[in-house]
Amino acid sequence: MVTLGWRRCAELERIALISDIHGNPVALDAVLEDIESSGADRTVCLGDVSATGPAPLYTLKTLRSRDITIVMGNTDERIMRPEAGKFNSSRDREIEKVDVWCSSLLGEQERKFISSFSPVISEDTEAGGILYYHGSPRSSTEVIDSSSSEEFLGEVFSSSDADICAGGHTHVQMLRRFGHMTLINPGSVGLPYRVGRNGRHFRPVIAEYAIMELRKGEFTVDFRKVGYDISELKEAVESSGMPEASWWLSKWKTE
């Protein structure tokens, strides 16, 4: 675990939370522009930066050029060491092809940058302790969502006394209380998740993130959704050379 140390809050501090970018350059640009216009003081990325999308190198370069704290996600780990046979369903085999392609593009500089991500990051502020992770503090693949039982959450956070716990992985925005803790998931920048009336999942053409506003002893959360032009995303995918491009694009539709 990395500890950022104690931070004295200004009268008001805004922290942008982004997660699950997945190499989507159009969504990332839209969110970063919105963050800049919002006046956020800093940004924390909760992992899954560059895998499973058309622009892994652009995404890494963009984040590396900014002062952004980054958590290690499960696909950040996987893109460093893609393993054949790790995927079980036909959908997963298509994801595997994309991730192996993403991994093949990484150079020494990109691998060094990804290796600098930490699985768990904590900090103490005047507004309370904050814990950042991807899936959970225990595992980047563990799922915390609105249906997680109190017993399960008690086990997950048994060794933490943080007041605010922020993670990603599910690609669904969430705000939930657990004891004295507030659990936050900002959703997904690059691959947001929805289930249609027919029971099938799809990707809406929006980029999700959240902004925490911290004051001494209190905070608020603003969940945001930023729209962008699907034609720009199609162009980025079709010009990228990524495998399974048609399959990847078929999951998107306007709400």
Structure description:
The chain is an alpha/beta fold and 255 residues long. The chain has a single domain, classed as Purple Acid Phosphatase, chain A, domain 2 (4-Layer Sandwich), CATH 3.60.21. Helices cover 30% and strands 28% of the residues. The chain has helices spanning 25-38, 56-64, 74-80, 90-105, 108-115, 150-156, 230-238, 245-250; strands spanning 2-7, 13-18, 42-45, 68-70, 121-125, 128-132, 164-166, 173-178, 181-186, 194-195, 201-204, 206-215, 218-227, 252-253. Strands 1-5-6-7-9-8 form a six-stranded mixed beta sheet, with no helix packed on it. The chain has a five-stranded mixed beta sheet with strand order 4-3-2-12-13. A three-stranded mixed beta sheet has the order 10-11-14. Strand 12 (206-215) and strand 13 form a beta hairpin. Helix 3 packs across helix 4 (90-105). The radius of gyration is 18 Å and the shape is globular. The N and C termini lie far apart (39 Å).
What secondary-structure arrangement, pairings included, does this model have?
Layout: E1 2-7, E2 13-18, H1 25-38, E3 42-45, H2 56-64, E4 68-70, H3 74-80, H4 90-105, H5 108-115, E5 121-125, E6 128-132, H6 150-156, E7 164-166, E8 173-178, E9 181-186, E10 194-195, E11 201-204, E12 206-215, E13 218-227, H7 230-238, H8 245-250, E14 252-253
Parallel strand pairs: 1-5, 2-3, 3-4, 6-7, 7-9, 11-14
Antiparallel strand pairs: 2-12, 5-6, 8-9, 10-11, 12-13
Helix pairs in contact: 3-4
